[in-house]
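Annotated sample (chain length 406).
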Amino acid sequence: MYMSDAKDIMQSVHRRREDCINLNTSFQTARTVVDHVLSNGNSMRPVLRRIQTFNSDMDGADTDYASELFEPIFGPYRDIPCMTPINNNWIHEKSKRKRINLKLTVAYRGSDFCGWEDQRHHLYRKDSIKTNRNQTTNMQQSPSVQGTLVDILDPIFGKKATVDNSSNNTDTETKFMPIEIKVAGRTDAGVSALAQICRIRIWRSFLPGQDSIDGVENYVKELVNKHTIRLRLGLRITNVDRVDNAFHPTFGASCRAYAYLIDLHDEDITATNKSLTTRDIVPNLDRMLRSLEGHSLDYFAFSYGKVKTQTTICTLFRARASIVESSKRRAICIELIGDRFLRRMVRILVATAIREACACVESNHREALMDIILTRDRACADRAAAPDGLIFVGAGYYDKRVVKVK
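Output written by the structure step:
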């Protein structure tokens, strides 16, 4: 039996990256999941299986969103009916627009990057002084996911590349903005992704080495993957689709899914019989999380930094905890699906939920997280859990019709 006491679990969750010689000490399961997707792409072979779930006697808002969003981890769901599946019935129609829109599905290993956002902010300001892009990249400790994609795609599909190939009289002093990449959810340093959704727009009149735009999807996929393999970066494009101009990965997403994985260690239960064990913690953790499902709540207490959004109200469609196993080890898996998430909300919620689950086992106080939410006091929440165990699983576009065009 795999057991971990409460102290071990809390130490794993709060492990700081700078304090760790081996950053993956307690997050090997998370790394296994990410490496599986990076190596196998769209393979539906499950990498984890649930070995213990906890049926709450509460009326949880179980949704069908999980049936497809968590397929990269658990494989296709066979026992959960999908009443409103993701819309894969693309409407084929021709477009006369000058640019075509590509939807990229990207997987990446968080430890290889400083986060999603490109830190070279001067490149995206029209009034900035021109600077050597490569020099700025070398100043960064780690590349960003956005910056890596920009450096690969912009020389070929960016506006400057298009102008250079269509005219010999290019103004060398003109500043061209890098290719714009919209994304479903920006991730922090150390956070991985299995199916991050991005959108780029490329000029219809330009594709190197081809007279038409046929095959542009495979071209983009192979271009990025060859570069990242050569650079030895854990980033792969697993799928490319052509979409309508109305598709927006950020504002069009109806939900986003995250998983947080914490390794469990093999310990003698008799040696820790006076401590809380996984047997005590995870059922209570699951009950607390389920109490949040289906409610539109103000999650300000679980946010970080200056709030830049119009509202801090979010709805969690799924919030569960279970024990899962891979071929080598077992782990606690926390699954969250919501319409939106605030900055560091998932990591703060995970750390606080585990803290409260450890503290409230005997009292069985299921509303501990709800009480903290109602205070709107950040001091009542715990500090954010380590990013190494967090995975952006994907985004769903259930209520928005995405149009595929030729």
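Annotation: The longest strand covers residues 313-325.
Annotation: The mean pLDDT is 79.
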